[in-house]
Amino acid sequence: MNKLTQRSCPRCDSQTLEVNRCYETQHHGDRKLYRCGACGEVFSQTRGTFLERLSKPLSTIVQVLKARSEGLGVNATCRVFDVAKNTLLNWERRHGSETLDLG
Ligand SMILES: [Zn+2]
To answer: What spacing in Å lies between the alpha carbon of 75 and ligand 1's midpoint?
Structure first.
């Protein structure tokens, strides 16, 4: 499984995490909040990842990247999801360089 989100505490790097709660963001749909079991730090699912800085809904990005990983071509993916080619290539480049979880 690909990794799309951070699964360790940004403060102490512990992987003992609890899901704190879900919340809705303006542009990204539902997000999970995690709470570190070691130091109590609360952080969002996408904190520190490129997703934090994107304007498309997280669900769309996940679908797009999944479609690409299933072999759908760049141009076809752009048509299906109404995404600019540069945007898609940008996601893929960032996706390849960060630790992400598509689950
Ligand atoms: Zn921690």
So the answer is: 42
